[in-house]
Write a structure and sequence with these properties.
The structure is a homotetramer. By secondary structure, the first copy, chain A, is of the alpha/beta class. Helix content of chain A is about 35%, strand content about 20%. Chain A contains ten helices and 14 strands. In chain A, strands 7-8-9-10-11-12-13-14 form an eight-stranded parallel beta barrel, surrounded by seven helices. In chain A, helix 2 crosses helix 3 and helix 9 packs parallel to helix 10. The longest helix of chain A has 18 residues. The model of chain A has no long low-confidence stretch (mean pLDDT about 90). The interface between C and D is large, with 51 and 52 residues.
Chain lengths: ~325, ~325, ~325, ~325
């Protein structure tokens, strides 16, 4: 780590950094640049809180702030959800309705997305809604319906958990716990799911940097739960012509930084039904380990997110093409030059 | 409300909107534009979930999605914290250390900021930190220290609450509950503080729109707690030369939309000690009802946020100038032309 | 078009809108919502300048502000650059060095990218640089080298033009004129290239909305030049871990809005060599009509943009896989369900 | 400057940096961190183009990329426009209509804003418009009207210049040349105004970082024109509830980085008439050297930007309060503690 310091305000800071470094077994070396600035090179780790002294003008991390999530810690993680492996090779398709509201409809939807190639069922029992006047989900009754749909189809189930108190009950019914975008920095919730041994689908906050996202994964990993899948679901930019901007750059970039599997949510990532297919395939071409898609029969009458929910027939076409693109990426030599 | 519809996909949507409108006592009128689009004018309220049909290309809200937070509902709210009134006229200065770590130091800091003009004490007992390896606050022990500092100085206390389970214990000790930026859309937490009768300081999420912020206030108000103060604390933009960008446009804009008081946090809003003073005064000039500032003696050795913490002497200068600017704004005719 | 009006300030505005509408042959209809707001429905076009009256609280465009660029004007445009057709089916690969600095090196690079599957040569003679102290390109001497490389390889040439005065000389040498991201809203330059009959590669400004981008295309089209190709090259977001964020959502979205071909620049779009391949393939999977890539032998010693320039061998692999993905997208039924 | 290097790809890069450094008289020192990374410390300047080698993972600038614009080069610049000094102490008010369309109206507006305290007249002759179908300004005829209004009122005149070819004719009529936000990175235009000896008002691009803005100033300064005033006019963020977000953080931040005066445009910066006053005063409180405001009699009928144009009576109130706030900022001790 290299710490840049304004020499005119540096009184005491070198000593403080030296003390903090020696507490964690690191050593420091100071360079005077003769232009009013100093650098302190730290060999080893230093407490993050030591770095906010106002004489410090910049901190350049030679190594990343996360440890357990980094590729240096581990080369590759395969996450198991029921019998399904995420990160093992073939893209994993997760699909289902936005929200769970009726058992028959849910079983019907689960059978339809299974026939279309999905191998994990998604569906919301607890729903975070911007308006207090919108439908907020059925809660435990919804969880029971999800378990019913699993029994009927054999598909393992992923569903969102919104607060620490819901973790236990949700873990009883679900095979994978989803942390939604709005809760990516809900640290008590991250710690709580980190204490379970359920796999976690960690969605990216819509204005979270890559480093912040991996630090949230670090919260879960540091509690002992190694089964984390990252899910890119669209960021917020200046351009509001779509609800969100699916950030596919994150996929290959994460593959360089972390051993955790990465999947893509083109439904929330665009908010627009006609873009789900092209962006799903683009996500696979960028290297994603899977997709999570809102799909159910009669999407026009979906209880929420109708504008981004696709028909199972379209999901089937996406699945076929996604498998073909994924296979093609792994072929070394397709054609002679 | 005006709903725009793609005529080619409109099969069934008009009927569905009609049904949803009549359920809530509204009526609709349809216009055919002869260019492939229809408009549906809705007189009255309609369920938000009815608006996500994919044939709907745009929804133009004649009225705002929030009700209790809007200026149409109420002209002006004054929030009482202990004996202090926020929104009653004079700017209210809240100040104190980032985090509470020692009772003597805290009492010392509280006395110093009181002498500098602060009338509410701030300080963190539960701290949301990006890294799981950073200091996370003392929890209830910190709350006890805050109560001790109140006893010593008479200043009412505001402190952050991070999860629903902490609300009860925090409300026992604190005079005002702070919802931090990362929790602005933590809906279970909003509902929980809405169920108390403690005043709430609701910080803006750093990528929340004005409407989303007011919808979060609506969650609290709709539970029966009318004592909400909004706090602008910096948004995230493309420009990372500062940690955040304090968005002062929000101040006069909120004054047109809501009856709730609005304060400014120039410490987190800039992340840089030398900018705290100018941006604090700019916030008052823009019409803010108060300031919340990180300040303590010996800020260089602050346990966190040292780079944005100011000395009490600087806080005193800010207080004096803030009072003068506020007085000046209310003078109708300062000089003849 | 639907115009929302604040009734309390509406004095005169209805008359003004009526007058403006009748000047352009449109008619208006007024709705009173009984909630303090009025709506004016405009059937037909109205002058844009009539819409900035302060009583107007919102304007909802039933139709888009661009005309010639819209899909309603035309279903599909194929742009010809020399013998190459962009938008006709197969993805078009454009490649070459960032900047032109030496004829032998350029011919060498052109031969290498041609062997790797490129069918248009790119290279900069006029270079926009953030710093006045960076290398600014060779100007006309660079254009002559590009013409030399075309003579040697048969590849048509695309190169950037930075100001109206350079258009004539550049059009003498080049087969396609590039408008760079920083000049997307340089309206005099757009008009000038619109007056030529050379095809134009119009890069997206890095903070331009989709509508603004199409309005810039409209400037070129309205001067009579119909040969415009849009190029997504990365937008600026809050996340600066990469230089830019390639916005692939724009590809399928533009396909719904405009008849113009769309290509992707994964080199500038990410700024990072290791991401060029995955994002190039993702762009093709999203539906792009082609790629423009910085590539040359010995990219480590490239005179600029070395960190995003790839070797011709990697370009060859990208080309093969891009062709395969493109073919696959057009297959209706790949596998039985 | 500290350059971080990925050791596994570092082949040749140390030698290349050494060669580039010695070409510019700098020296280097290499540190091996024993974690797979190297650092190269450069004492002195190095060519920017040497820094894009792909083995370079980060560049930490000890000093800023601009020189002439930096505070190290010069402590303070006062810019003279006619008899007016910008940056000398009192805030300078510039005001006038958005666009010039009629001599009598312009003289009338100029007299009104002069009576309201403005000491420089603004008005557009060449207008950059997003739509090719909007009114584009009168060109030279507009410049003649501005000269007429100056003759009638004695106010010096600032007006925008959009392309290099317009610089000469505009400099004949105007006292100060404005570079608009869309042209902040139009480098040929910056060079051209840098070759004149007219003062320049350099608006910030709406997605330009502070460093990029100062680099654009550097283009002008490096041509020998030292008379540059920076103008903050709103940036683009995720929040589109206003047209732009006036970024007042830039004011005190620039005061630390540069000797150039800084003014604020609350009209374009918010796009909303009712916010112009509060944000103008906030700008002065943040330390701005002046304001540029769209104002004319009967703003509702302004030919463009009516929604952000204020009446001269409101401008007069802003001027009075701005003067009072500015005076107050300079008072050391307002009240005893």
């Amino acid at each position: 780590m290299i710490i840049s310091i304004d020499k005119s305000k540096s009184n005491g800071v070198i000593d403080a950094l030296g003390a903090a470094s020696s507490r964690s077994g690191a050593s420091i070396r100071v360079i005077d640049w003769n232009d009013g600035s100093l650098s302190v090179n730290v060999l080893g780790q230093i407490e993050p809180d030591a770095l906010s002294h106002p004489a410090i003008t910049a901190v350049h991390q030679a190594s990343k702030p996360y440890r357990l999530a980094s590729k240096e810690h581990r080369e590759k993680t395969v996450v198991r959800v029921g019998d399904v492996e995420i990160g093992a090779g073939n893209p994993v398709i997760m699909a289902g309705p936005c929200v769970v509201s009726d058992l028959d409809q849910l079983v019907n939807a689960a059978e339809a997305v299974k026939a279309a190639g999905a191998i994990i069922l998604r569906g919301g029992a607890f729903k975070p809604r911007t308006s207090p006047y919108s439908f907020q989900g059925l809660g435990e009754e919804g969880l029971q319906m999800l378990a019913g749909a699993r029994a009927a189809t054999g598909l393992p189930v992923v569903t969102e958990v919104m607060e620490p108190e819901q973790v236990e009950i949700t873990a009883e019914y679900a095979d994978m716990l989803q942390i939604g975008a709005r809760n990516m920095a809900n640290f008590p919730l991250l710690r709580k799911v980190g204490k379970t041994r359920k796999p976690v689908l960690l969605k990216r906050g819509f204005s979270a940097t890559i480093d912040e996202w991996l630090m949230s994964a670090e919260y879960i990993l540091s509690e002992g739960n190694s089964q984390v899948v990252l899910c890119e679901r669209g960021i917020r930019t200046f351009d509001n012509s779509l609800r969100f901007n699916l950030d596919l750059n994150a996929i290959p970039f994460l593959k360089e930084l972390t051993h955790l599997p990465v999947v893509v949510d083109p439904s929330h990532g665009t908010g627009k039904r006609s873009l789900v297919g092209p962006m799903a395939l683009a996500g696979i071409a960028a290297g994603a380990d899977g997709l999570i898609v809102e799909s159910e029969p009669n999407p026009d009458s979906a209880k929420c997110d109708a504008s981004q929910t696709i028909e199972p027939a379209e999901l089937a076409a996406i699945t076929r093409k996604a498998m073909a693109i994924s296979a093609l990426l792994n072929v070394e030599e397709l054609l002679p030059i």
